[in-house]
């Protein structure tokens, strides 16, 4: 215990107080600077994450709005264009659902329902769906600006659509969609190649008959002179 008594005596001595005070100030300064640096780094990282989330959300919303424009003329697109559009919509739907926002899945469900309705109506109304596309664009932009408030509106719409769903009507709509898809596929299917008989080459003979050649030789034969 002698070493402990010596340490306490050294710690409480008057000549060591400036050294202890300096060490305490240095320790507190290092601690405060470390905490401040960690707070600044955390704020910067969170700012970068929020900026990246905003960019992803804007890109996903832009893709969905573009998909709504294509869905309004869905029946006039080729099958290849429809495949590319569906792929882009699927990627945008996944991006929206993975966003760290409350109600992102609700917004994705609402957008999927609206896109499906636009595709179905394109077979009947065609280019008359511009107001519906404009409404879809405004609702998605409103969700981008005010996610919490728009989430309630989306949820109310989904609940209303669920209550209005009728099984016989849904079956009839599914059959109609199947028929429209078959008609669309048949319209863009490549017709079989048919050989045209008129395009086949016709062989013409350039040989003259033997009788005509013999007559020509007789005419060219010299006539003998009389004495």
Outline the structure in words.
- Residues 217-227 have a biased composition (Basic and acidic residues).
- Residues 174-227 are annotated as: Disordered.
- The chain crosses the membrane at residues 20-41.
- Keywords: Membrane, Transmembrane, Transmembrane helix.
- The chain is an all-alpha fold.
- The chain has a domain at 52-164.
- Helices cover 75% and strands 0% of the residues.
- It has 8 helices and no strands.
- Helix 2 packs antiparallel against helix 3 (79-97), helix 4 (104-122) packs across helix 6 (147-164) and helix 5 (130-145) crosses helix 6 (147-164).
- The radius of gyration is 43 Å and the shape is rod-shaped.
- Mean pLDDT is 76; it is low at 192-202 and 204-210.
Q: Major beta sheet, specifics?
A: none
- N- to C-terminal separation? 175 Å
- Measured by DSSP, the beta-strand proportion falls in under 5%
Helix and strand pattern: HHHHHHHH
Task: Give the low-pLDDT segments.
Answer: 192-202, 204-210
Mean pLDDT over all positions = 76
Give the proportion of residues in helices.
over 70%
Number of helices, counting only DSSP H or I runs of 4 residues or more: 8
By DSSP, the count of extended strands is: 0
Q: What Rg is obtained from the alpha carbons, in whole angstroms?
A: 43 Å
Judging from the principal axes of the Cα atoms, what is the shape?
rod-shaped
Structural class: mainly alpha
């Amino acid at each position: 215990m002698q070493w402990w008594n010596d340490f306490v005596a050294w710690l409480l001595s008057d000549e060591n107080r400036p050294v202890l005070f300096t060490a305490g100030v240095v320790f507190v300064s290092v601690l405060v600077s470390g905490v401040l640096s960690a707070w600044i780094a955390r704020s910067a990282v969170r700012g970068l994450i929020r900026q990246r989330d905003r960019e992803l959300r804007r890109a996903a919303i832009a893709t969905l709005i573009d998909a709504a424009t294509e869905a309004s003329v869905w029946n006039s697109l080729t099958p290849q264009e429809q495949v590319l559009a569906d792929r882009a919509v699927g990627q945008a739907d996944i991006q929206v659902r993975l966003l760290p926002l409350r109600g992102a899945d609700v917004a994705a469900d609402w957008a999927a329902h609206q896109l499906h309705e636009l595709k179905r109506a394109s077979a009947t109304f065609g280019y008359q769906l511009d107001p519906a596309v404009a409404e879809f664009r405004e609702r998605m932009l409103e969700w981008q600006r005010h996610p919490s408030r728009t989430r309630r509106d989306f949820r109310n719409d989904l609940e209303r659509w669920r209550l209005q769903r009728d099984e016989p009507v849904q079956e009839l709509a599914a059959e109609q969609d199947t028929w429209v898809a078959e008609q669309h596929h048949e319209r863009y299917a490549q017709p079989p190649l048919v050989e045209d008989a008129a395009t086949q080459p016709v062989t013409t003979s350039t040989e003259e008959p033997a009788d005509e050649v013999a007559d020509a030789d007789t005419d060219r034969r010299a006539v003998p002179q009389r004495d």
